[in-house]
């Protein structure tokens, strides 16, 4: 658990801070209301902590999800939706778990948990959530080009902006003005977030997922998804960085930009491992995202 309040920032007692756990920087403060945010969801946490490297016990996985009947019902509903696109209808959770397997159930469980986490949010929350979901759909789509699992890419991508959602949920009054403005680029948004609340959503998200005991890859994704693209990044981080930028270019940005890179400009150079011709067309990708996003609007 985070340490308790140790100081206040300037004349803003509502922005009292706590010391973060060991993120990669040591000069960061975490706003106290973020520290008090409840964990995403204990069932999603347990599912995420199950490792595919172990011989996964699907009976145990089903038992974990079934412990909360409402959560289990949502998992089943979403697993059957066009968002996840399984061709035949599954009526029993244990059947869904057996058919879909661990990585797919992780993706569905995290989506269910995120929707509950965001319920009751206003238009800004909805916009950030749409960006996160679009990023997840794109990440799943382009993941084979980087030789990684679509479900892994989806699950990481849907969490990549959890810091922004957490900050908005904890500090709606402070975060609404900076997230409603128009920016030249994502770096300018990070600067505005730091000016408003002393921390940007990358650091806040990394801190949150670390505090919630998510696997370490989530910490890296949250903390570094706005860093410049780098060929030495892990394949997963490359996919998330690219998907986040592609979501912006396709019109699913979390905040408003004066201009954003075109989809074509985001495609990797020909000499890299991922070839531009392997990526879906801009039109097909946008149509796919819109179709699958419609599930969230129902
Ligand atoms: Fe972000
Ligand atoms: Fe993003």
Descriptive overview:
With about 300 residues, the protein is mainly alpha-helical. It has a domain at about 120-298: Orthogonal Bundle (Hypothetical protein af1432), CATH 1.10.3210. The chain is built from 15 helices and 5 strands. It has helices at about 30-35, 40-50, 60-65, 70-80, 95-120, 125-140, 150-160, 160-170, 170-180, 185-195, 200-210, 215-225, 235-250, 265, 280-295; strands at about 5-10, 10-20, 30, 180-185, 255. The chain has a 3-stranded antiparallel beta sheet. The chain is globular and about 50 Å long. Mean pLDDT is about 85; it is low at about 1-10. Bound molecules: fe (ii) ion (2 copies).
Which secondary structure elements does this structure contain, and how are they paired or packed?
Blueprint: E1 7-9, E2 12-18, E3 30-31, H1 32-35, H2 42-49, H3 58-66, H4 69-79, H5 93-118, H6 123-142, H7 150-158, H8 162-170, H9 172-180, E4 182-183, H10 186-197, H11 201-211, H12 216-224, H13 235-249, E5 256-257, H14 263-266, H15 282-297
Parallel strand pairs: 4-5
Antiparallel strand pairs: 1-2, 2-3
The chain binds fe (ii) ion (2 copies).
Rounded to an integer in angstroms, the radius of gyration calculated over CA atoms is 19 Å
Continuous helix count: 15
Can you give the mean pLDDT? 86
The oligomeric state is: single chain
- N-to-C series of helices and strands: EEEHHHHHHHHHEHHHHEHH
CATH architecture of one domain: Orthogonal Bundle
Classify the fold: give the CATH topology of one domain: Hypothetical protein af1432
The level of helicity is 55-70%
State the end-to-end distance: 36 Å
Class from helix and strand fractions: mainly alpha
Largest sheet: 3 strands, antiparallel
Low-confidence stretches: 1-11
Tally of strands: 5
Give the CA-based shape: globular
Strand order of the largest sheet: 1-2-3
The molecules bound to the chains, other than polymers, are: fe (ii) ion
């Amino acid at each position: 658990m985070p340490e308790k309040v140790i100081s206040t920032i300037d004349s803003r007692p509502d922005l009292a801070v706590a010391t973060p756990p060991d993120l990669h920087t040591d000069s960061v403060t975490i706003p106290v209301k973020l520290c008090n945010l409840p964990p995403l969801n204990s069932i999603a946490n347990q599912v995420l902590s199950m490792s595919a490297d172990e011989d996964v016990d699907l009976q145990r996985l089903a038992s974990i999800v079934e412990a909360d009947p409402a959560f289990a019902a949502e998992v089943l509903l979403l697993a059957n939706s066009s968002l996840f696109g399984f061709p035949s209808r599954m009526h029993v959770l244990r059947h869904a778990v057996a058919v879909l397997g661990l990585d797919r159930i992780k993706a569905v469980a995290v989506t269910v948990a995120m929707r509950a986490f965001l319920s009751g949010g206003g238009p800004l929350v909805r916009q950030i959530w749409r960006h996160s979901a679009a990023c997840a759909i794109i990440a799943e789509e382009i993941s084979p080009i980087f030789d990684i699992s679509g479900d892994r890419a989806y699950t990481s991508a849907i969490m990549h902006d959890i810091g922004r959602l957490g900050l908005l949920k904890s500090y709606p009054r402070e975060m609404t003005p900076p997230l409603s403005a128009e920016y030249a680029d994502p770096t300018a948004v990070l600067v505005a977030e730091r000016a408003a609340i002393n921390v940007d959503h990358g650091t806040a998200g990394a801190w949150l997922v670390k505090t919630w005991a998510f696997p370490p890859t989530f910490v890296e994704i949250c903390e570094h998804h706005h860093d410049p693209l780098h060929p030495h990044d892990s394949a997963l981080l490359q996919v998330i960085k690219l998907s986040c930028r592609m979501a912006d270019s396709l019109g699913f940005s979390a905040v408003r930009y004066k201009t954003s890179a075109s989809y074509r400009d985001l495609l990797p150079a020909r000499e890299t491992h991922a070839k531009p011709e392997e990526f879906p067309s801009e039109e097909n990708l946008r149509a796919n995202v819109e179709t699958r996003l419609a599930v969230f609007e129902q």
